[in-house]
Design a protein that fits this description.
It is a single chain. This protein is mainly β. It has a single domain, classed as lipopolysaccharide transport protein A fold, CATH 2.60.450. The protein is built from one helix and ten strands. Strands 1, 2, 3, 4, 5, 6, 7, 8, 9 and 10 form a ten-stranded antiparallel sheet that branches.
Length: 177
Amino acid sequence: MKHLASLLVIALWLSPNASHAQRLSFATDASAPLDAKADKIIWQQTKGRADFSGHAHITQGPLTMKADAMHLQMGPDGEAQRLVSQGHVVVLSDLNSGGGSSEGSGGGVRRATADTATYDLSANQLLLSGNVKISQTGDLSSGEVSSGSLKIDMQTGIARLLGQTNEKPGRARIELK
């Protein structure tokens, strides 16, 4: 019975149509500046790229991304275009921040982990892929959502689970604890 109640809570958590339920969303602020830190940063202005290694950490408003390594590609105008993160990628979204788009989220911190993440800054899309797992602290439910990939619209904060990636087929899954 406990698992049935947990499944119902998670189903409502994922439901985009239930007005009283929280959607799978992340608190975001695409207009906030990017703050980057790492043990080592190599800036190659002539190549239009920056490489971050060793505890790479980028924050943008209520969203934080951590990874073993990050590669930032700039356009000819010097604007950041694409950020690729690899190795032990963790995305944390502070749903209590009051900013961004976490309407109906219930508070806490939403955490997503993946093998890689690609942030297309011009399209404001963050794509996590490979062994994606999502959990939340401060939530009434206990469980984990996993999938092949997760796409987050950085303007709205709304996320979509995708059951398979181009590399390998898979399915979205809910695990109750």
